[in-house]
Predict the 3D structure of the following.
Amino acid sequence: MRKSTKAIHSGGLEHSIYGEVSVPIFQSSTFAFPSAADGAARFSGKQPGYIYTRLNNPTVNALEEGVAALEGGFAGVATATGMAAVSSVYISFLSRGDHVVATNCVYGSSRVILESELSRYGVETTFVDSSELSNIEKAMRPETRMIFLETPMNPNMKITDLAGAAEIAKKSGALLAVDNTFASPYLQRPIEFGADIVINSLTKFINGHTDVIGGMIVVKTEELYNRVKKIVSLFGTTMDPHQAWLILRGLRTLPLRIEKSQENAMKLAKFLKSHPKVTWVSYPGLPDHPQHELAKQQMDGFGSMISFGVQNGLEGGITVMNSVRLITLAVSLGGIESLIEHPASMTHASIAPEERREAGIVDELVRFSVGCEDFEDLRDDLNEALNAITD
Ligand SMILES: *Cc1c(COP(=O)(O)O)cnc(C)c1O
């Protein structure tokens, strides 16, 4: 199956009950055993079948199969939130004395856990600009257990070479974990480039309707799967069946939404480039993006996230936030509606200004998650908001 077919058909029930076409919601916390012997056989793993929803649930399993098929992994484990996926990956594989090399633009909470929480358990992290492979290489130590990447990077839209990073990880016996939320498996499949673990915040593109939170871990091998599955079941970061059903519904239209929103994004990136109040545009689809060629190699499309700079720095960014009317001023991304935010005064305000600048999060940067509206309406709204910036 090709990827749109997979999004629509992967992840179903083994046996339908009434010939239903959509996967039902199995809203049951526990499952009855036909006999004591069956119960014993299920617990020992000798008999397939359900036991208890924290361990397995048919609706949740359907979503796991669907996303794992798109990512091209061995299997997936669904979690309550994207952060539950990130933290479960950390807990599954990191122990006292281990070292992590992470992208310096990694998602805020993913960074805070490494910096302030895992450090309490003796895990050390070095943050690097991973868009230069030599920075990863230089940070590697004998005790480096994991490379943790995000590409495209948030919010500067730089790209990390996945195949190159996988080679460094392999040489050092480290695991390569990639947070694939910004691209989604429709545009980028890190396992094809050698990643061991892929995380998605399903809250974003995969659900796509800005109404549900969820996460997914997809892994390359059975051994990795068994480890992650055990930790998620034990720590209880499991997804709920109703949540899984809603997200499965979103997954079915992922290809349509991405195609429409990235077509809009390409047109808007070009429009922004020509606007007098815009100082720079970072979108991997523009030929002048420093890693345009790399993006072409490892992505099937350039996605629908754009960052750009506006005149008058912090003040200019705030003016745009207060002047958009159709585009919603909100954090998050990947929904059918366009969202805009200003990292320096919002998502990344808690990071020290020097650290922000080091990570390329300058004061004038605006992050734009392009939705599926008509291009002309988005263009007109942006144009008016930009023109509100005083010269
Ligand atoms: C949103 C996001 C997360 C966290 O996901 P939640 O579903 O909000 O817990 C992790 N990584 C990236 C890149 C994200 O955008």
